[in-house]
Amino acid sequence: MAPDRQRCSSAAEDPIERLADAIRRRNAILFVGAGVSMSLGLPSWDALIRHMRAELGLDEEEQGQSRDRYQTLAEYYRLKQGSIGPLRSWMDRNWRVTAEQVRRSRLHRVLVELDFPIIYTTNYDRNLEVAYEAHGRPYVKIANARDVSTAANAATQIVKYHGDFDDDASLVLTETDYYERLSFDSPLDVKFRSDALGRTVLFIGYSLTDMNIRLLLHRLWQTWHRSGYEDDRPPSFVFMPHRDEVEEAVLARWGITFLSQEGADPEEALTGFLEQLRQRV
User: Fold this and answer.
1) Is 162 a catalytic residue?
2) 3-class DSSP state for residue 143?
3) Options 51, 135, 162, 225, the catalytic residue
4) CATH number for the domain running over 2-42+99-280
5) Predicted confidence (pLDDT) per residue in 74-110, tens digit
6) Radius of gyration of the chain (CA)
7) What is the pTM of this model?
8) Where are the domains of the chain?
């Protein structure tokens, strides 16, 4: 009996097995960042900055300046142009790939196969929706309060946390947009707190220098910490292609397990990790 108990204990302590178990029980949420879309060849934030500066007649960005300047530039763009409509149209045209490209993507195929009941994404593009359509899986898109009230529970919910190209008003793009979201009281923020409170959350495709995501992770920990029931919190995870001792320690303090799979190519590392996870599920 002792060896069996030891094997059970080892499985319980294995973070990937804990994550796989939550997915099997459909008690896990996926949170998807820009790295997943960039795997399909979509432009980077640097390309967005260059486009805005060119359209506004500004000089080239000085080397070494933060790419987070895109939020300030987008704010200036809206002030100068009167709206972000033209910018949104450019992003929609240039951040679009064919259904066949999505269908061929190993990364997007395994995301669909893992069958998360709820997927949050800060990406504006439709690549997740196209992946579900390409592989014949039902989904509902949620980008505003109306969508929350009408969403069916049977299909996977794809929640466009920072907005959707189909609705200019929903986009979180400018500096003001981000500051207004820091209060975390929008309908989608309320939904996320409700969805995440009793579920495991897996974050993929993010740079941990993204302060918005760091604040989201901290708020998730803070909610449980203040509740007095922190020990009962479901496990949450962040996947990164490479180990980082500093980040691992900080995230552990917030109750989030750092997962990594060393590889030269971040996309291959993430795809390999998700395929391993699918096999466990």
Assistant:
1) yes
2) coil
3) 162
4) 3.40.50.1220
5) 999 999 999 988 998 888 888 888 899 999 999 999 9
6) 19
7) 0.88
8) 2-42+99-280, 45-94
